[in-house]
Amino acid sequence: xxxxxxxxxxxxxxxxxxxxxxxxxxxxxxxxxxxxxxxxxxxxxxxxxxxxxxxxxxxxxxxxxxxxxx
Length: 70
What we know:
mainly beta; 4-stranded antiparallel β-sheet; two-stranded antiparallel sheet; globular
């Protein structure tokens, strides 16, 4: 599975993590400043609930992500 992040305005320091409900990080990447569209390949993850956590210039944005097997 892959997800596309669009219209994300990134600052100078950006780290994106995908975290299980238990708190374990299962995916992590650095995002480049000024990039508005980013595609994440999450094909290795099993169905379940995760959180996408963006650390940006000292701020944290967290969104729930539910993966379902088709």
